[in-house]
């Protein structure tokens, strides 16, 4: 047992996993750019109040899961690691006066989030999100555009079977009356509620709607539905979001029980799950509209909508679905030599190749040529540059390790030859050994 280990609920991403994550980051950055979202980066920690106010003091994320940082001084600021990106991005929107920029302001961020949750499969204390936010557009067209972007991300990542659940949770005009009606309904059935849900009833009655407890699920079947209580403006907005989604061919499942775990949402709410698996740890992402958040954090009233996709969960789902990892980097050359001691020449030639933009490494150990070549093959190198006696005449051997072919190349034109060989790698580098 090593003395030090990664903290509980976190994990190291070793090269194959980090490469797989980098691929997702790349897909996200590429899609975001194509849809007109600009990258932003906010600090990993904020004043705790940004999250307490923004996300809501009686949400699980704030009440139970916030990573609070111990202040170093008595009167120190209360800071917390970010549990999600939206509150920080909206804080930045207000701080930098982005309401004077052309609206909407479309921003994207990918990074680690921190929630002090009970660790389990798919639920980590440090996890990655790909996030987009469109601030300043009341929708409904942008709502559909953002949901379509999420769907496109999953498809591009290789998850073909993703279900998107959609709901509208109303706004300040219609939700309070609905919540009161819902709470009254649960109170009528208090005896049927498990203790945990009884506890949540008075503080967050909406959360009972997405309870997985069988007794609550049964109760919910008869509970009043928010979609039947929307005010005219919310109902029209919801209908239009659906019409836009239909127009761009996004498939979704209406789910009147879908409520989100953060308080800032209004109207459109959605979540994505792997098909056939809507367990609590399985959500691949979620988002929605937050028309009151900018004002809540001190800005002028400004509507907004966004989503956060859980990249760790996407990786897990890809693994489960048996989607193979693609680890293709550029074809790599390894510089080896017949004189084990001559590390200078090997390092020099590899340095020149890298300076020319190629992927190359030198054998810097002092083992025999046969071992050097074996190691290169084990590493999955594509080419070996072999230095021998011919170097005196300005030549080295260039070997295609896969094809097993080899030929003499002038050192002066090695980079060019290697580049050409890399382009036609699968056809070998020349006419035989
Ligand atoms: P969220 O639903 O709390 O929304 O998180 C989004 C996604 O992050 C989840 O669907 C899940 O895939 C992933 N996730 C959350 N917690 C964990 C965890 N402990 N371990 C692994 N993955 C996790 C938000 O965060 C909102 N900011 C989304 C949003 C953006 N709404 C509007 N704009």
Account of the protein in words:
By secondary structure, the protein is an alpha+beta fold. The protein has helices at 15-34, 48-55, 60-63, 86-95, 141-157, 175-188, 195-201, 214-222, 232-247, 293-296, 311-320, 343-355, 369-378, 414-423, and strands spanning 38-39, 45-47, 68-69, 79-81, 105-114, 126-135, 162-168, 253-254, 266-274, 285-289, 304-310, 333-337, 360-362, 383-387, 395-400, 405-410. The strands form 3 sheets. An 8-stranded mixed sheet has the order 1-5-6-11-10-9-7-8, with helices on both faces. Strands 13-12-14-15-16 form a 5-stranded mixed sheet, with helices on both faces. Helix 1 (15-34) runs antiparallel to helix 5 and helix 5 (141-157) packs across helix 9. It starts with 14 loop residues before the first helix and ends in a 10-residue tail after the last helix. Residues 427-433 have low confidence and may be disordered. Bound molecules: histidyl-adenosine monophosphate. Histidyl-adenosine monophosphate binds next to strand 6, strand 10, strand 11 and helix 11. The site of histidyl-adenosine monophosphate has 26 residues, from strand 6, strand 10, strand 11 and helix 11.
SSE layout:
Blueprint: H1 15-34, E1 38-39, E2 45-47, H2 48-55, H3 60-63, E3 68-69, E4 79-81, H4 86-95, E5 105-114, E6 126-135, H5 141-157, E7 162-168, H6 175-188, H7 195-201, H8 214-222, H9 232-247, E8 253-254, E9 266-274, E10 285-289, H10 293-296, E11 304-310, H11 311-320, E12 333-337, H12 343-355, E13 360-362, H13 369-378, E14 383-387, E15 395-400, E16 405-410, H14 414-423
Parallel strand pairs: 1-5, 7-8, 12-13, 12-14
Antiparallel strand pairs: 2-4, 3-4, 5-6, 6-11, 7-9, 9-10, 10-11, 14-15, 15-16
Helix pairs in contact: 1-5, 5-9
The structure holds histidyl-adenosine monophosphate.
Histidyl-adenosine monophosphate binds at residues 84-86, 115, 117, 123-124, 127, 129, 131, 133, 261-262, 283-288, 290, 306-308, 310, 312-313.
